Amino acid sequence: MTWSIVAREPETGNLAIAVATRFFAVGSIVPHIRGGIGAVATQAFANPFYGIDGLAMLATGHAPGEIVETLSARDEGREQRQFHLIDGKGNNAAFTGAKCVDWAGHLVDDNVSVAGNMLAGPQVIAETLATFKKTEGKPLAERLLEAMRAGGDKRGKQSAALVIYRDQDYAWLNIRVDDSADPLTELERLYAVAQERYLHVGETMPTRQNPSGMTDRREIDEKIAALDAARIAEGGRSASFATAPAPS
Q1: N or C: which terminus of the chain has fewer CB atoms within 10 Å of its end residue's CB?
Q2: Which helix (DSSP H) or strand (DSSP E) does residue 129 occupy?
Q3: Does the model's pTM come out above 0.85?
Q4: Distances (CA, A) of 192 to 104, 176, 196, 232
């Protein structure tokens, strides 16, 4: 069983996919994103070219609905496939083949879609979508994690992933759990660790608009030091020891 959520944050244009499944290393197969262009999740009897070619078509201006029609029409295995996608403006579309294992289906809403197959029932994606919508205003990563937790299919999970792109060609956050008895809990733990140092260091990275990035690290170092002090005061661990040092 697999279910996923594909979303765009209207305020920032950030694109994201969260997915969980009873299958090994789902993060290596399902999520495909290009910053500012779009996001595609390909699952069920997954066809990676739905992600690869879907993004290429989005980059050249094709609409999500057109992409669904084109990619599924050329694929003789389409009735066993499921995929959903969104473009950089928030337009989206989804496809669930008739031979996907029950329960299988999708929901499409403004700037978000949810799809799943081999699920306990339609309530899995319904709860996922409802939770995502009612958590508006929270950070995108937290909304995705809460949504996946709310919709969680109790029949067993093995791997999960959370991928977020800003407007660059590289991921702002790309964390995955390849093999775990409780992958969503582990994914939540990894996101917490990422907030200690990783995401702050990410603010120093070069962008297309600023090819040098932040060359003076003092601002970030001061912010991490302040967070360290707050965590220690609260009895938590220091980010300086929680993760590897920032790149030199």
Answers
A1: C
A2: helix 123-134
A3: yes
A4: 32, 13, 7, 15
